[in-house]
Every structure is written in structure tokens, then in C-alpha cells.
Amino acid sequence: MPTDRVRVALKNQYQLNVERIERIAYGLWEESFSVWTSSQRYYVKRFYAKWRLQTRYQEMLTGLALSQELREKGFPTPRLLLPLHHEWLAHDQGETYQVNEWIDGRSYHPGELPLREAKAMGELLAHFHRQFDPLPPIEDVPMLSPSEALANCRELWSQYQEEQGDFPVYVRELLEEQISLLKMVSHEYVTCLPVPSLRGRCFHSYWVEQLIFHPNGEVAALVDWTDGAGREGYWAKDLVTGLHLSALQYDGILAFCEGYQAHHPLPKSEWQAVLAQLCYGHLASTNFLDSWLVKHNRRMEHWEQIAMTWTRLVPERFRLWHKLEQELLDMLFPDHPQVTVVVGRDNG
Fold first, then answer.
1. 320 is in which domain, residue-wise?
2. Bridge partner residues of 213 (DSSP)
3. Which among 10, 42, 45, 13 is positioned nearest to 29, based on CA atoms?
4. What band does 298 get if pLDDT is binned at 50, 70 and 90?
5. What are the strands of the beta sheet with 90-92, ordered from one edge?
6. What's the confidence (pLDDT) of residue 94?
7. Are 220 and 122 in contact (CB under 8 A)?
8. How is the chain split among helix, strand and coil, in percent rounded to 5?
9. CATH number for the domain that contains residue 19
10. Is 346 within a domain?
11. What average pLDDT is seen over the chain?
């Protein structure tokens, strides 16, 4: 789509006189642009998936408002520009836009994050969780049984059976490996797995492509707040999302969790629930691979590559589960079998 409409929208809604626009290859659900006026540079997002706007619009506004509230407290998030109608998102010629200040720094794709940055990423999620009072603990629902997971994987395999191309071949092979591993897991074993119980306001879409890093490895900004930020949830699930969607491997998982635990300590049982969700939960899941069949992502080739990066780690993570759990717990709890969860909140 031409950038002329972006230029017109920014003039109409933000009174910005744009001199230069460049597309940015970012975003599964939106189009991104780097925009210059005579004196400033901005990041502009044009939302592509209309169904997301229709079903999540108020939630998107809530997340954006929260980002500015936390920014006033020193949390690293970009300054948003308010359009003329003083709502965080602007509408022009049937399109929806978000504009914020440009943040200089380095970004990473899934599977690329260095250990130093992985630790900083875990630290920032801990600081986000500490911004809010915890909610009363409630045990999450049990994970899928192996028989249910096998049925789902077989059903998705059958849907891919007649599809042609490299990605369908990859998915069929992946599902076959998941099916093989699921056959080794008993129903009784899964019913005994720990489930999360500690809750608060969560980010819900915390992953590596949401972050900009300084050269020293610290986080410069958490940039995308339109996918559930601030909604209630389980802290453990926020951790699992960050670990899985960032495609962190063994040492990266340890670094991320070490960073988190240093600033928002969780008890051993909750970390065991994190690893159960990460290692078995994703093996028992079809991991959104069904979305390829309806092709509602904007950049399908990019989505295929990123989905392969996410999912190819799933079988190996399952195989390393108990080794990973032992090393993580030894690292986080070297002297004490249990710690007390932090129930306070950051006030700064």
C-alpha cells in the first residue's frame, strides 16, 4: 500500500508535516514506518488486521494508556503522541494508526537474543509484574491430557496432509515428532504436574520483538502495548510466553529466569509450573500452526520462518525438561528449598 495515505493521515490527525517515510519490516499484524519531520523522527504503526481492531480495540487503548502511566514512573516505554481527538489511536480514511517517539537501539528476532540481553529481558518482566498488587492465588486449569493432545495433533496433521510446499512438510514432520513423544507420556503423570497459581496484571505478549536494547544490553524500551498489556493473568504464563516466543535455548532460558527471580522472586513450585507449561504444555499444543491454513497473517513468508523458529525447539525442550528443571532450581534456590513470593509492589 502506498505511503501517501500515511503522510495524509499524520497531517490530518497529528498535524505532522512529514518529509520522509521508510517502511520497517516488522509486525505480523501491522505495518510499521519510520517517519521524519524537519525536526523529529517517529515510529508509526498502521494496523492491518481489522478483526483484531474489532475484537480488542478497548483492550488496545487500555494497554496504551497503561504504557504512558508507567512511563511517568520511569518504566522504559516510548512517549505516545495524542491525535487531535485525544484518543491513543487515530483513524483516517478507514485506517488506524499509532504514533510514538523513535527509540534508538538494537532489536533482535526470535532465536537471536544474547545471554546478557536475555537476563535483562527477564528483569524487565519482573519489574512490570511488580508495578501492581498481586491478585488472590487461584490454581490454573490442568494441562491437556496426552490423549487430548494426541487427538489435536493428529487432526492438524490431517488438515496439512494435502498441502504442498516446504512449510506444510515441516509442520507434518514436527507433528509426527510431537505425536511420537506424546505417546510416551502417561495420563497419570500429567495429572500430577504443577500448575500456576500466582496472579497479577500481566503483559500477555511479552517477547523479544517487543524490545529495544541499549548497546550495554539493558532494555531501552518495551514498545508494543496493544495485545493485552495490563489484563489479569498468571505470572508463570507471562514467563512462558517470553521464553517460548523469544525462542530462547537452554542457557537463554536460565539467564532470563535468573534475571526475573532477582527482582520478583517466585517459589519453587511456581518455577516447576513454568517449566511444565514450557516443556510439556507446548508439546501438547498445536502452537497456532493452524493459522497458516487460513493465512490471515500479513507477511506469510515471515510468519512461516518465525513459526518454525518457535516450534522447532519444542521437542528438544521436552527432552531436556528434567535436566533444565534441575539446573534452574539449583541456580535459583542454592541454599533454601523454598522462597516467599514478593507480595509488595514497586512505588517508583
1. 115-332
2. 106, 219
3. 45
4. low
5. 20-24, 30-36, 41-47, 95-101, 90-92
6. 87
7. no
8. 45, 15, 40
9. 3.30.200.20
10. no
11. 92
